[in-house]
Amino acid sequence: MKYGMVVDLNRCIGCHACSLACKIENATSKGVFWSRVFQLEDGLYPNVRRAYLPRLCMHCENPACVTVCPTKATFKSPNGLVLVDESKCIGCKACMLACPYGVRYFNDGKDYFAGGTPPWGELPESHKEGTVAKCTFCSHRIEEGLDPACVEACPTRARIFGDLDDRESEISQLIQSRQGFQLRPELNLKPCVYYLPPRGFTFGEEKA
Fold it and tell me: Which domain holds residue 42?
């Protein structure tokens, strides 16, 4: 099994429900979003179109972050997830520099959940001060048979989660039938997050 995600850019309306669901689920620090949505613009005024590009950890098959980690704190799990062992992380930030998608964050131990403890209890271990953290595809939810929080929260079902190794799975079928593409394929990192292109749109400028 190899977990992956498909993001349908025709369905994404830029509501940021995924970003907020992720933030609530993982109690990330103020200003830290493991899942972000960027605006894309195409065309020339007044004939301009806008689309949205959600971005999160790509859980690459050949992750650069794993290669550069000096303590093996960043690793790949058997099901394809790229995770961080906080007990081994020394906060050197090598993985942050190696990641071409800019989706890793350093934990400074400040301002979690508006400066307090989340209502459901203590902060997760992924917030250990002096370590690096990122999207985990909500591995704790996957273990319970649930979808990642961002997938569950999406009102237009723009995000689909599943097994890339299963040729009959919904995400495998969508990638094949809708010409799903990866970000920065020239780097040969083989991201496990695929995007379905918006119809009639050529990618232009990104605006956070």
Answer: 3-207
